[in-house]
Amino acid sequence: MLYIKCPYCGLRAQKEFSYGGDATVKRPNINEEVSSEDWDNFVYMRKSPRGKHIELWQHIAGCRQWIKVQRDTATHEIFQTAKVTEEIR
Amino acid sequence: MSQPFRLNKEGLINRKKKISFTFNGKKLFGYEGDTIASALIANGIHLVGRSFKYHRPRGFFGAGVEEPNAKLQVEFNGHSEPNVNATEMELVEGLSATSQNCWPSVNFDIGAINNFLKMFFPAGFYYKTFMWPKSFWYKIYEPFIRKAAGLGVASIEKDKERYEHKFEYCDLLVTGSGPSGLASAYAAAKNGAKVILAEDKPRFGGTLLTDDVSIDNLSGKDWAEKIITELKSMPNVTVKNRSQVFGYYDHNMLVMFERVSDHLEKKSKFTPRQRLWYIRAKETILSTGSIERPIVFGNNDTPGIFLSAAAKEYMKVYGVLVGKKPLIFTNNDSAYETALEFKKNNVEPIILDTRKEHSSELIDEAKSKGIDIRFSHGVIVANGYKKVKSAKIGKLNKDKNSFEKIETVDCDCICVSGFWTPSVHLASQSGNKLKYEEKIDAFIPDKKKQHETSVGAANGLFTLEESLKHGFENGSNLSAKITETKTEISIPNVNEKKYGAHDKFWCMPLPKNENPKRFVDFQNDVSVSDIEIALREGYRSIEHVKRYTTLGMATDQGRTSNLNGLQLVSNIENKIVPEVGHTTFRPPFTPITIGTIVGREVGMEYMPTRKTPMHEWHEKNNAVFVDAGAWKRPRYYKQGSETLFEASKREAKNVRENVGICDVTTLGKIDIKGPDAAEFLNRVYTNAWMKLPVGKARYGLMLREDGIVMDDGTTTRISENHYHMTTTTAQAANVLSHLEYYLQIVWPELNVNVVSTTEQWAGAAIAGPKSRDMLSKLYPELDVSNDALPFMGYKEAEFFGVPSRIFRISFSGELAYEINVKSDHGMFMWEKMMEVGKEFGNQPYGTEALSTLRIEMGHVAGPELDGRTIPSDVSLNGLVSKKKDFIGKNSLGREAFNVESRQKIVGLIPIDRKSSIPEGSHIVQDQNAKLPNPKLGHVSSSCWSVENNNPFSLAIMKDGKNMIGKKFFAVSPLKNKSIEVEVISSHYVDPEGKRVRS
Ligand SMILES: [Zn+2]
Q1: Omega prior to B934 cis, within 30 of 0
Q2: Which of B31, B123, B672, B849 is 20–30 Å from A23 (CA)?
Q3: What value of ipTM does the predicted structure carry?
Q4: Contact with chain A for residue B706, Cβ under 8 A
Q5: For B525-565, what is each residue's pLDDT tens digit?
Q6: Contact, B307 vs B66, CB < 8 A?
Q7: In which residue ranges of chain B is CATH 3.50.50.60 found?
Q8: What is the CATH number of domain B516-602?
């Protein structure tokens, strides 16, 4: 079970969180024209890297904040966590 | 009752307390502190089981967790448990143990015929034999294998014991209380670290209990006791015996299995049997020690053959002799300690040492005591079927591949030592890749993957001096980093015997024309010839050899067999061991009970139960409940001997004719506040929200970004910047997360807050033509006329002195209202409604009637919004705005969503107007068509229409809008039904929706 550092609450067990997918995907702006290709890329296309991955988790059984987690998909090592308003370098 | 093999004085058992038990029906006794194994050996009993494949007689081989053979069916404290390790299970009064895998008895086992048919059971036998013909598998092969292969018998009784889970956090977890573990824990504790020290056995000290050593002029045992006593007195230290750390998981989480009360004769009602600890450790010290390796020889599985360290442990810990005429067979010095221990107890051993004559401290001591030592010797084959009687021994030639001399010597036990294997299981589980250490011919941990440090013998350090030093240093350094305190500890003086070098010799050759079985893996009956066959047949990867032969795949995880197997493969293949590699270790290190894994999460405790404030009333009024997620909802209120069908029909009919009330507390409720709330709703829902006035509700539909319907519900504008959203019961949590996602990540510029208020409000729906009359009685002061409170209207008013919210919304399709009061007033509201509603024929209705009402109205719910439908599929495209953007809008333009033959919701009625159509039925053109019969759609919801008094179903059907009036078959192979149906509109009752507006 992973041990995830919520930027608001500190280190908490994985069972308090739910996974939210790739954090680098950006939704096309509302009320703006978007090509089918860009839209499909946003909805469906995801990289599935072996190694570092920046992803979203929500602290559902805690502060309910969505957070960013940089995790190694092969080893589960977590390098960094951040608020969604912060950048992961 | 004498115990012929019990020594008079030796041992750590409590001779003042006798414990009686039975073995295969025979009454025996042992002492407090015995294991089942030590008590049986004291009674001269060695034959305890039959082997897995060949049903060969088997006895004890080890004295602890390494035991491959002695797995018993044990009954104690009122339960029966299979595969109990006799070398670990402590004796308790009244325990009854029986042998497994034998019939009719362990002494006469019919399955032993396999042993004489062994040419039919080589490696890969199952793969080769049971391949063909395929149809034989289920009827013949599989039942046969199951019957023959079963070891113990699992109990089918309900487990009455209590099991617990515990979550713990510490600076340093130390796994094993041998010398290096004690040293690490002590040093860390002195630095102020929060330490947990876990010991698998009942007694602390590990090898200090059996080795002839001294530390600071104390015997090993006394020193261990001194350290443990001090550790126990420290507030920052938790010391646990009977606790096996069996799994190393991600982010330094280790799981430990504690046997809390299996050894107790009496315990209080709330004492758990076993406890599972989830331990998050900042650092882990793996002081798991090492396990002795056997040397492979002929019939080496005969009862009476032991690991030499186990024989010593039986003498020193339990005061038990494993035999009185021992043969010691070794390639190293450690077995000499066993020989000396025999000698001390006036038993004359013979030592067979595979090494050439040489000298070391231990060899010299044995010589000086007059022990018969034969160098360049080894056991070729053990004689005796159910117990060792003698052994054929041989003098090895220079190359150790043939014999210069062969003779037979009498013996009643053989104690074998093939050097030591570090226990690297936990290190391997942590992700450590392990490396081969030539010096000890075994794998030790390599580079750390997590915060784990292997110390002492687990890291290949086999002298006490090295072990202690390693333990003290690592315990101190690792903890100092955490506590930032370093207490100097002087490393104690150690007195131990120096060992000479071991012999790299693992398997005895056989003389010509002799072919006894030489077992590598006892528990899975894998012999040298099986491994030879696997290699001959072309298996090269050690992982493949493992699976083909099943080497190391038994519950003992190959603790005594893995390395001998590797040595054998490397010899035959002419490779060095590291090239062969090792197989992966996986948790659990030892078998653990299912009960411990489950813990308290059984029955009612399996998940939380959510009850509405009106639950007690429902219970008192014969509600039959149904689970809706964690909620309990009344499905129907049973009157007399009514069935579900009769009751739900009565309740639904009463709503259509009079008025009914339904507990709708479980609906998800979300409070939405903020100046941008309207804009937010406008983006979340498919329909327009900018112009909803205060005091009005609106039905809304929300999509996922892929255009699929996510949820529906009504949202009401309570005040300028305050909205009350409802969701379906099932989607409440998902919708909240969904809203939070968009507010926190996608549109943080929107000034909106959302919070769940599901638990804060109790809700009741009043539905039926007489609901307005009833409402006016509930709110005598309020104007509830159609003009004052129209469809989708909202009012706040006092409900008999209690603040309440009135929504004119309808799920049943009837004139209906929903009243919300604070949860604490829920019961008050409900009882008042029942009282006031009497004169209007009010009856409560459950979810079954609720479903009937919505289905015949063609209102969609979960079965239609199943994660595969878009708005137009369920006739909700009227709610999709063409003017504005919203979540998922761009996906609705996808080609597949817009083809003419797109699926669509329809209604179905059976041609005979009688047969109910099972939900999940497939709609087909021809009920007799050859399989696979093309599926045109499926039945999503079914009911008995109370309005039309015949069955009615909703279905999602391909090209649905062009199917109205056509006839098909609804086929349910599960229920073995095929019903001819006609497709009609999904709105079966009141298609214009007049009633809700009336
Ligand atoms: Zn948090």
Answers
A1: no
A2: B672
A3: 0.98
A4: yes
A5: 899 999 999 999 998 888 888 888 888 888 888 899 999 99
A6: yes
A7: 164-290+422-495, 295-418
A8: 1.10.10.1100
- CATH 3.10.20.440 in chain B is located at 14-129
Question: Concatenated DSSP letters for B796-832?
Answer: EEEETTEEEEEE---SSSSSEEEEEEEGGGHHHHHHH
Give residue limits of the domains in chain A. 3-25+39-83
Residues in B closer than 8 angstroms to A85, CB to CB, are 748
Class of domain B295-418: alpha beta
* Cross-chain CB nearest to B885 (options A30, A66, A75): A30
Task: Mark the ranges of chain A whose per-residue pLDDT is less than 70.
Answer: none
Question: What's the CA angle centered on B668, arms B663 and B670, to 5 degrees?
Answer: 130
Place of tokens 């079970």: A1
A interface with B, Cβ–Cβ below 8 Å: 1-3, 13, 18, 20, 27-28, 30-31, 34, 36, 39, 42-44, 56, 58, 60, 64-66, 75-76, 78, 84-85
Render pLDDT for B76-90 as a digit per residue (tens, 0 to 9). 877 888 889 999 999
Residues in chain A: 89
| CATH code for the part of the protein at B14-129 | 3.10.20.440
**Residue range(s) occupied by CATH 1.10.10.1100 in chain B:** 516-602
Contact A3 B280 (CB under 8 A): yes
Q: CA torsion sign, B64 to B68 to B73 to B78? A: positive
Rounded to the nearest angstrom, the minimum Cα separation between B932 and chain A is 31
Residue B866 tokens read as: 């199943």
How is domain B667-757 classified at the architecture level of CATH? 2-Layer Sandwich (3.30)
Q: What's the pLDDT band for B216 if we cut at 50, 70, 90?
A: very high
Q: Where does residue B421 fall: left (phi above 0), alpha (psi -120 to 50 degrees), or beta otherwise? A: beta
The pLDDT value given to residue B143: 57
B164-290+422-495: CATH topology:
FAD/NAD(P)-binding domain (3.50.50)
Q: State both tokens at A26.
A: 């950006």
- Pairing mode, strands B631-637 and B660-663: unpaired
Helical (H) or strand (E) element with B992: none
**Cβ atoms within 10 Å of B4's Cβ, excluding its own:** 9
pLDDT beyond 70 at B124:
no
In B293-349, beta strands by DSSP E: 305-307, 326-330
Per residue in B24-69, pLDDT tens? 999 999 999 999 999 999 999 999 988 878 888 999 999 999 999 9
pTM score of the predicted model: 0.90
Q: Are B879 and B699 in contact (CB under 8 A)?
A: yes
Strands (E), B749-890: 753-756, 761-767, 794-799, 802-807, 816-822, 843-844
Interface touch B253/A1, C-beta < 8 Å: yes
Q: For the domain A3-25+39-83, what is the CATH superfamily, name and number?
A: Folate-binding superfamily (3.30.2270.10)
User: Is B282 in CB contact (< 8 Å) with chain A?
Assistant: no
Phi, psi of B221 (to 5 degrees): -65, -45
Mean pLDDT, rounded, for B256-273: 92
Count the helix, strand and coil residues of chain B and give each as a percent rounded to the nearest 5: 30, 30, 45
Residue B123 pLDDT exceeds 80: no
pLDDT on residue B834: 98
pLDDT tens per residue across span B283-318 = 999 999 999 999 999 999 999 999 999 999 999 999
CA distances from B521 to B263, B540, B586, B904 (A): 30, 19, 18, 62
CATH topology for the B900-997 domain: Elongation Factor Tu (Ef-tu); domain 3 (2.40.30)
Q: Averaged over B426-437, what is the pLDDT?
A: 95
Return the number of CB contacts < 8 Å for A and B: 55
Q: Please state, in angstroms and as integers, the Cα–Cα distance from residue B110 to each residue in B70, B114, B828, following that order.
A: 19, 9, 72
Q: State how far the Cα of B485 lies from the Cα of B171, in Å rounded to an integer.
A: 13
